[in-house]
Amino acid sequence: MGLEIKLLGPWEVTADGEPAVLAGERRVGVLTRLALSAGQPVPAEQLLAQVWGESAATTAGKQLHIVVSKLRGLLSPYQGDDIITTVPGGYQLNLARERVDAHLFSLLARRARAAKAQGDLVTADELFRRALALWRGDALAGVGALWAQTESARLEEERLSTLEDHVDLRLEAGDHLAVVPVLTAHVEAHPLRERPRAQLMLALYRASRPSEALEVYRETRRVVAEELGIEPGETLRRLQRAVLHRDPALDLSVPVQLARPVVPAELPAGVRAFTARAREVAWLRGTLTDTRPGLPAVAAVHGPGGVGKSALAVHVAHAVADRFADGVLHVDLRAATAGLEPLPPYEALGRLLRSLGLDGAAIPPTLDEAAARYRSLTSTRNLLVVLDNALDAAQVRPLIPAGPACAVVVTSRQIMASLDSTSHLRLARLDHADATALFGRVVDPRRLRDEPEAARRIVQQCGGLPLALRISAARLAARPDRPLARLAGELADPARRLDALQHADLAVRDSIAVSLRHLLREPAGHDASHVFLVLGLLETAVHTAAGTSALTGWPEGRAEAALHLLLDTGLLEPAGPGRYRMPDLVRLHAREQAACHLPSGTAHQRRTAVPQPAAPAGHRTSDRA
To answer: Among 18, 210, 386, 459, which is disulfide-ready with 330 (CB 3.0 to 4.6 Å)?
Structure first.
């Protein structure tokens, strides 16, 4: 993939598709200035004047040389040693102009206009869409120098003209219904541009909304009078008269046939070894294809980390995708990713709106406005939206589409109880038979036949958690020379089990830690976190509010509230009325954390002095989940 420089939005350099870290205001400024003239020399005096500005000192020339040397060192592994060459009087970035998104945008826009002039409107439409899709926000965002602001304004004017040229083409194609929300956003963002106001009037008139078209004219007249002290231009005045007289010239005679826009198909690949869950699959399929009048179908799947919520959602989404004519959208909301903050709702909305064809600069600047635009764009569509790894209902609520022909599946660790008109499914761990079947699908069958008892022990120690089974299978695949009995032995040792359940970027410990981190966001999170640590020290897996009250010295109501919160976040599981079970793998992590965060000696005190809950008749208490 090589090197790419992205200026049409937040400043970014990628190397082979991955972000390249480039620190320092002057390094960014020099590379940006060179990128805007890629393939052409830039005088050193210009670089010094624009990047160093008034702060240029007698050593500025040497500093420029050092900055260029640092840039070469960063970029040459991806593009060769001659990525930045010294030319008479300056420097030159030797990168194909198509590798700089600003130049690629200009190239595509020119080709689109040329195709339109030649009558090839299908190609023109495709090229316009590709050009506008390159925009991710304001050009040169993050580069604050005066010269960068001038370049940003130039690029923005080019974007606006390209967008308006594309709208003209879409109006010729009879796409007036779809361009109304695009033009509405455009007019709101740029109230003094008369061309998009004329386009909006025409689109509304053709959509059988003449009164709204006339209201656009009245609003235009008010704005230009207040801001500029003039009347609207002749084009708008003539259009107003044509709308008033219902001039047949405004009607579309024969729409141009354009290629159907690309339908989003954003689902990640399904899990090839997806096993069991027949009841859950049937429930989710039925919920997503339920045709209730007036409302989109919303299915929320919750359960502990690593239990397979995402795998279930993606598996079913692939199975029903052909029922959604306008495509499938997918967003990872990142509430289950160690080391990353959950995706803010506004950022998630931006991704969804871009997938629906809104270019980045046209996305409204506030969450409420962006959510309103999203509802407008989805109100008449037939979409499936997968909102994976959600944190809570507040994150999800703005992302629910408005169209009654839409469907949504949400996965989260806690139940989305406050989402209106939502069907809920709690996904539990696999029983031993289903866990064995899953393990048998991902491990070499010959190894299972050679060591059936070791395989049984591995499955047992994974506690029915698909993530643990996947990690075990990955470790076995990575070392085909090692016997299964060796991994079974590591898992049998409680002190080594969590270490054994990590491979590459997968780790049961990290999955549990994410839930614990989010727990602290809750008002009673510190109580629940303390109870989590203390319960991890016990030899029993099943707990009650009374036992926890004795353990902590708190009133029983406070202890029960902490247990409920642990249950909501998937760190405990229901074990009958008033009873809570801490699964083995969770308890091992709790014990590790208790050793770090509780005073020394606590472990012995808790294990010997706290009464344990008695099991009711017929109930088997075990220290295994």
So the answer is: 386
